[in-house]
Specification:
CATH superfamily of the domain at 568-645: Golgi alpha-mannosidase II
Radius of gyration: 26 Å
Distance between the termini: 36 Å
Oligomer: single chain
Helix content: 25-40%
Shape: globular
Structural class: alpha/beta
Largest sheet: 8 strands, parallel, barrel
Bound molecules: alpha-D-glucopyranose
CATH topology of the domain at 568-645: Immunoglobulin-like
Number of helices: 24
Number of strands: 23
């Protein structure tokens, strides 16, 4: 027999101290007063262990001193953190998966070409919200020197906005306005290097040994030459080699990227502490997401390729713990453009997580390869690999971003299954996208390395799928096809699990900007072809579906609305691929309890027949039509379908 619980009555009779508002306030105050300590206690053992291990070459006393310096910086950053952000921290500690929500849609933009300056971006927030966007990645906006800036990735001051874009105050106002509107903010934390114009670099150059030790300085080429034997080049054409000779101080400095980007020396604990402090500073400026730029490169060790070394993971893990103590509302987004097997370790383990989210560069480039080959088998293989990963792994998905498309495809798989070799395959892709093999695409090569038969690719989505060519030829039929293609690729993006990010301008199908060819500061970097000024005059056409801008803009809104209002697109769904009847069709299913979404994407310019024998209550998400039987479908060229089985 069940025993009745008297608890409820008792509770009413003797009011719990919690129901006393004064006690509640006091309790809350005590809890907050100890918040830092409580969080630190959770992590200090491991943090200390990793720090001491990483700097094992230092004397114990010096290590103790450095570690306590780190703790002091953390405490100070916590104390400086605004109340509003601390409240956000607490909310997110209670909802740690907030960034996985299918209601989130991101956009990344460069402040200057998008809206002139930070105030301009703030004035454009209505448009951003109208576009369904509630996550903004502001591309690098910190101080940098034009002509030696690598699109802002050569930071001269981590605590100062580039003056032409505004001030730190403007940034704080922008993030505050974003937060009020429910928009999360992301910024890059360029942690591998500083600009040669950074104060540390200037002092190093002036001969101060202390600052030379922030970088890798050499008196002669002996060690640099040893490094060069093992370390590949990032920019083989635009910045060959990994070292730069500094004529004025007669030294050689390690520069993996451009010669004006000096690699930081994380063997030096001061560098780690200063950079961790800069990371906390960014978070305190209101960043919900910190994009750790080029993170695989941060640890250098002679005799290795200086990529993905174990110490990199130690540092990322320490960054994660530092955030969890000081600013747990902020998450880490890793920019790891590496082969899939190198990627997963950056998530860390369940007990010792590293990044919260990673770029899904492989799916992105495999999708573009599929565009050129019209053969979805490699993409299916890639989606199988992603679908087999634990659900805790969250990816940031995208069609285009500010960088080139590097062909990081699974070449061993292509070779094994189809005897397809890397060099001729890349050549085909690049020839196709640059219209060398006659095609609709209008791309440009990036860092063509004839030695290795390697080159990457640049161009906006719209120009790569044929919109530019169709408009140039005034060919309405081709234009229709190309805009359908553009929408299909975005549907594929939105159909994946993770955070979808639009590249600003793609929502109106913005074309390549060739102006950079004549710009003395940009001409040698073809990535500027897709970093053109945002076309505000074209935005006005977004309501007219008879224009390319309107068709894409309205088409995207519709897909985004479907995504955000159907939990099947959320992080808990299972996902798998299926054979949809033709090599140019990609079939994907998602399942959440009883519901099943069937998605099919046609990567060819021909119509395709799809046979889906399914019974029971379905809904065509694209038209809203209810169906009891799902039978044969004619998918239009570059068409797609999203059909939901929903028994309730
Ligand atoms: C990242 C950025 C890229 C930049 C590089 C060097 O890969 O995405 O644009 O050139 O880092 O900082």
């Amino acid at each position: 027999m069940a025993v009745k619980k008297p608890a409820k009555k008792a509770k009413k009779a003797i009011p719990s101290p919690k129901s006393n508002p004064v006690v509640e306030v006091v309790e809350e105050a005590i809890r907050n007063a100890n918040e830092f300590e409580t969080r630190l206690e959770r992590h200090i053992g491991e943090l200390r262990w990793l720090f001491f291990e990483l700097y094992e070459n230092m004397a114990l006393e010096a290590r103790e001193e450095s570690f306590s310096e780190l703790l002091q910086r953390m405490r100070a950053a916590y104390d400086r953190r605004r109340d509003g952000l601390k409240e956000m921290d607490r909310k997110r500690e209670a909802n740690p998966g907030w960034y996985k929500d299918n209601k989130l849609l991101g956009m990344c933009l460069y402040v200057k070409p998008f809206a002139g300056n930070l105030k301009g971006v703030q004035n454009a927030l209505d448009y951003i919200q109208e576009s369904n966007v509630n996550y903004l990645h502001f591309m690098p906006l910190l101080d940098t020197v034009d002509g030696r800036s690598d699109g802002g990735y050569a930071v001269a001051d981590f605590r100062k906005v580039k003056p032409e874009l505004g001030t730190m105050q403007d940034l704080a106002e922008l993030t505050a306005d974003c937060h009020k509107r429910g928009i999360s903010c992301c910024m890059d934390f360029v942690m591998n290097h500083t600009s040669e114009d950074h104060e540390w670099a200037k002092r190093a150059r002036a001969g101060e040994k202390e600052y030379q030790d922030y970088y890798f300085f050499y008196d002669n080429w002996d060690i640099p030459n040893e490094y060069e034997k093992y370390v590949p080049q990032v920019f083989p054409t635009t910045a060959p080699g990994n070292f730069t000779w500094l004529e004025d101080c007669q030294k050689i400095v390690l520069t993996s990227f451009y010669p004006y980007q000096w690699d930081l020396n994380y063997w030096n604990p001061k560098v780690f502490i200063e950079m961790a402090d800069n990371m906390m500073f960014l978070s305190n400026e209101g960043m919900d997401v910190i994009r750790i730029d080029a993170v695989p490169y941060i640890w250098k060790q002679l005799g290795t390729d200086c990529r993905n070394l174990p110490q990199v993971h130690t540092i990322v893990r320490m960054c994660r713990m530092i955030c969890e103590v000081v600013c747990p509302g902020t998450i880490l987004l890793g920019e790891v453009v590496m082969a899939p097997e190198k990627l997963a370790p950056y998530f860390g383990t369940v007990d010792k997580p590293e990044c919260h989210m990673l770029y899904n560069a492989t799916t992105m480039c495999t999708m573009w390869s599929t565009v050129a080959t019209r053969d979805t088998r490699l993409l299916r293989h890639q989606m199988d690999a992603v679908n087999n990963l634990p659900k805790e792994y969250t990816f940031l998905n995208y069609v285009r971003c500010h960088d080139d498309i590097g062909w990081g495809l699974d070449y061993p798989w292509l070779a094994w299954n189809f005897g397809q070799q890397e060099v001729p395959h890349k050549k085909y892709l690049n020839d196709f996208f640059t219209n060398k093999i006659p095609s609709y695409a209008r791309g440009e090569l990036y860092n063509d390395d004839p030695r290795l038969g390697d080159a990457r690719l640049c161009g906006t989505t719209a120009s790569l799928v044929g919109i530019e060519a169709a408009e140039y030829e005034h060919d309405q039929h081709k234009l229709e096809l190309a805009t359908d293609f553009d929408l299909m690729l975005h549907a594929f993006l939105l159909g994946q699990t993770g955070l979808p990010i639009l590249y600003a301008g793609d929502e109106i199908g913005q074309l390549n900007d060739y102006g950079y060819h004549n710009d003395p500061l940009k001409w040698d970097d073809s990535r500027y072809i897709h970093r053109g000024n945002f076309k505000w005059d074209e935005v006005d056409l977004r309501h007219d579906v008879h224009t390319r801008q309107g068709k894409i803009y309205q088409g995207l809104l519709k897909l985004e609305n479907i995504r955000k209002s159907n939990p099947i697109f959320g992080p808990e769904s299972d996902m798998w691929t299926f054979w949809a009847g033709h090599e140019s069709l990609l079939g994907l299913k998602r399942k959440l309890s009883e519901q099943i979404l069937t998605a099919v994407y046609n990567f060819s310019e021909s119509p395709q027949h799809v046979s889906l024998e399914a019974y029971g209550p379905h809904i065509d998400l694209l038209t809203g039509e209810k169906l009891d039987i799902v039978g044969d479908w004619e998918l239009a060229p570059y068409g797609f379908l999203w059909i939901l089985y929903n028994p309730q």
